Predict the structure.
Amino acid sequence: MCAKRGKRVILVGRYRSPFTRRVAISMRLLGISYEHRPHTAWSHLNEVRKVNPVGRVPALVLDSGESLFDSTAILDYLDQLVGSDRALVPVTEPDRHRVLQITACALGVLEKVVAALYERTMHPPEKIHQPWIDHNESQARSGLQWLAAITPSPWLGGTRLTQADITTIAMYDFTRIVNAPLIPEGRYPRLDALAAECLEVPAFSETKPVSEADQSNPFLQNISS
């Protein structure tokens, strides 16, 4: 169980990483306190490898000293920890598969945004393959359009805020930072409205990547996990 014996769990990773941020938002919504260590694989690789052998964020260090890594595994653990009534992915159908479907789409968009970003930032200019960027951005747009077609009621997955909303907005805010042309002003009004609604919730506003480091050149930041 988290935070027994007065110890707090440790979340490793910057909020700049949408994968870390979706864990942070979830923990705050579930009332699970944590110590935040905003490490990246670029600047703190040895430290990150101590909690994830792959050297990626996020990682969650439990009060037992064990660590969980990969945001999906961490979130599954948190849902099991708090029980079915509070889990951010519903345990009963049809709500469960609907939330999983939306979350999977948002993660798919995120993977494509990151792939395009890495192609731009991890190669010298003469090695950048524009057709690969175009392909990934086209896939990201398709996913964004699908998400934007959902009519919230009032949330993406139904009557309560779920992992579908958390992951979608973590992806949406991140994309606005690293590839704003993918989200032209006014293109996705429903997602814009959802993002604004979520920003009224402290778990979202308190983790929004707004610092100078968060907004800086993506090449200098660790992003995915």
User: Anything to note?
Assistant: Confidence is low (pLDDT under 50) at residues 215-225.
